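ZP: hey, is the flavin-adenine dinucleotide complex queued? I don't see it on the tracker
AM: it wasn't, my bad. submitting now with these inputs:
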Amino acid sequence: MYDLIIAGAGPAGITAAVYAARKKMKTLVVTKNIGGYAASSATVENYIGYQFISGAELAKKFEEHLKSFDVEIKENTEVLCFRKLDNHFKVETDKGEYECLTAIVATGRKPRLLGVPGEVAFKNRGVTYCATCDAPLFARKDVAVIGGGNSAMDATIQLMSIANKIYLININNDLEGDEIMIEKIKKSDKVEILNNTNTKEIMGDKFVNNIKLQVNKSVERMLDVQGVFIEIGSMPVKGPGCDVNTNKKDEIIVNKRCETDVPGLFAAGDVTDVPEKQIIVAAGQGAIASLSAFKYISKNIFDS
Ligand SMILES: Cc1cc2nc3c(=O)[nH]c(=O)nc-3n(C[C@H](O)[C@H](O)[C@H](O)COP(=O)(O)OP(=O)(O)OC[C@H]3O[C@@H](n4cnc5c(N)ncnc54)[C@H](O)[C@@H]3O)c2cc1C
């Protein structure tokens, strides 16, 4: 029986684990990977203590910090559900079951799918959702970035120094996001912004060769590209919080102590309804969730 099981090892889960270790809670972290979304950010300039650090480097530092404590970690494992029994949880994963007194869902978010023909067929054969991971594969190639917000612009900026030509395919009238990024993109002669443009299909043979677009809801256009970066936002991975209350966006509703409506089950980071999805906010919530779990055990388990 663990005191605490944490699903996810992004900034929220890792911080929660460090706090739990310092409270000497018997803790298990079950995660698909270590680092989470933070690792895929090209540059992080707003995590206090580092004026400038790459997402990958920051994630590495988080991992080193986590591993300096005596915390059990199961990587490449997916938590399916924290199922509440009388005064503890049965934890169902894709590789077996565990039991714990308290649990934290820190599973973050996953990329939103475009939902057009060819997207699934060409995934990892030209279609990708991570510029930081895959941009180097498209050196001197022509690529399309689908989206018009900060994620799409972050991907475009990363590709500017690698790809030959970047088409930024935006369904809206104009780009929306940080002015600094918009300016940088508009100045680049490698980027062609196609506003009011909808992606209809991704085509190719073994790998992507072209995409079919619809401009201004009428004119069809074909573009020859070898890569398609889909950057149209993300959605919460609330899976392990199988019985908790969520809002309309499927985000887990938490109070300021990171408690969900299920006693003993806490949530932290991007998977919650916290309005700001940022590394520092996720880390802060991870700390709160862990301390709340500790208080829950002291009050409800040892006192009973
Ligand atoms: C391109 C990009 C750039 C960004 N740049 C910045 C920035 O500069 N500054 C900033 O502050 N924020 C930035 N962000 C936001 C930041 O990355 C997130 O707010 C932060 O990573 C959220 O942390 P988290 O721990 O809640 O979730 P995540 O980082 O998403 O981590 C979730 C973890 O849960 C694991 N997981 C998922 N499902 C399961 C499951 N069922 N079972 C077990 N494990 C599971 C994942 O493998 C992962 O380890 C950026 C995001 C993106 C996409």
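AM: back. Residues 2-110+234-301 form a domain with the FAD/NAD(P)-binding domain fold (CATH 3.50.50.60).
ZP: great, adding it to the tracker
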